[in-house]
UniProtKB/TrEMBL annotation:
2-oxoglutarate binds at residues 186, 308, 312. Signal peptide: none annotated. The keyword Calcium does not apply. This is TauD/TfdA-like domain-containing protein. It comes from Amycolatopsis vastitatis. Residues 213-238 are annotated as: Disordered.
Amino acid sequence: MTSVSSVSEGSLPKITELQLTGNESEEAHRLTLACARRHPETDTSDFLRFARTLACRLPMRILSFLEEFRQAEDLHAAVIHGHHIATETLEPTPSTWQNGRTPGSRPYSWLLTLLASWLGDVIGWQSQQSGRLVTDVVPSPGMEQSLVSSCSDRELSWHTEDAWSESRADYVGLFCLRNPSHVGTTLSFLDTRDLPPKILTVLQEARFVFARDESHTDEEPPGETRRSPNVPVLTGNPRCPQLRADRDFMAERPGDAVARNALRMLITQLDSNLTDIALAPGDLLFVNNRIAVHGRRPFTPRYDGADRWLKRVNIVRDLWRTQVDSTEENNRILV
């Protein structure tokens, strides 16, 4: 049924991979073209209401692969290789996300959304890229040294997507349209066997704060700040805890030297477990945002229309819980 080419173990993240056949790629592409002809955008409730039903028309081997990934709580990521990219109709890489919704890239937004729907519901933020559910990751002039995904000259540090929020995604999907320099997407995880029990206990206590990164550009609603209250880094089953971490936007609560030491040890391990995934055009990466962190290696943008270009979605497994958790945040788009 499912073709898994590799599952890494030990100090490396566990990644499962599927290589599509030519027929499977063409079948999926035809379905997305049909969706693009019928619906103006992926954000429409008309499309999203039936996205999972439409996804049933995808090749069975793809759906089986995604279902196994969804049920395997210890897998950090899944990669599907070999989706069709119509390079002759794909426009030059835009210099800003505002220009990312191009006619030639639209079918891949539908494809990403259909595949994501097999893992859960696609969500977006009112405060990020104007509330678009499928967002664009491109290098932007003037942002080369920033701390968000539009940076290039500096490394995008590993992070849990939207670690500051209790309503953060369970999965993050990244679909590669271009990557001429083979820039690596980084992935890491926590192996609890490599940290002392006392340190793990500290990381499970509400002694840490997270800041909201600059990709959320609008002003906070009244009464809100860009920082979380004191929260734990690890939650859930102590033997296989869920992780929230962000190298650039997390810290211990002020004056807590014990928490500072625990955070330092966590950072050291996540750094040492970091591995690279160089996505090729047509590759789709799903990151398990509950147990893995991801980032990106630095590169030099050329701004010639051929730079790296990814489509991105956030996915939650329980939309009802997300709606409840987000009532105090006031900046979530739910579909």
